[in-house]
Amino acid sequence: MTHVVLVALTDEGQGVTERLDALCREHLQRIDGVESVRSGTSISTEGLEADFGWMLTVRFRDADALAAYLPHPEHRPVADAIGAAAGRVVVFDVAD
To answer: What predicted TM-score, i.e. pTM, was given to this entire model?
Structure first.
């Protein structure tokens, strides 16, 4: 399972993306069933990101691990920081 989060930031200054990246590294790998975490800004040369300035992908062992991730206490600081920084969030989950 892969969990994709696209974030349109209200303010991209003052180290916002670096703070989000650091929170993801600090918290999300502690959750059982998380296999990998990637986050950052786009390096695409296509320019098709629209207003999405930051993204997060989390790969999970299985659907049960994804279900356990959402209410997990280590997810909360990341979700709260994204919510505070975001004007818009899109979440997309896919089965691998």
So the answer is: 0.92
Cβ atoms 58, 34 nearer than 8 A: yes
Which helix or strand (DSSP H or E) is residue 76 part of?
helix 75-85
Please state the rounded mean pLDDT for residues 34-60.
Answer: 94
Kind and range of the H or E element at 8?
Answer: strand 2-9
The CATH architecture that domain 2-94 belongs to is 2-Layer Sandwich (3.30)
Res 14 pLDDT > 80: no
Provide the residue ranges of all domains of the chain, joining segments of one domain with +: 2-94
Tell me the residue type at 32. Answer: D
Structure-block tokens of residue 42: 């786009």
**Which residue in 2, 27, 3, 4 sits closest to 81, CA to CA?**
27
**Per the structure block, which two tokens stand in for 67?**
């279900």
Residue type, 75: H
DSSP lists the bridge partners of residue 15 as none
Write out the H or E segment, with its range, that includes residue 65: helix 63-69
What six digits make up the tokens of 24? 């993801």
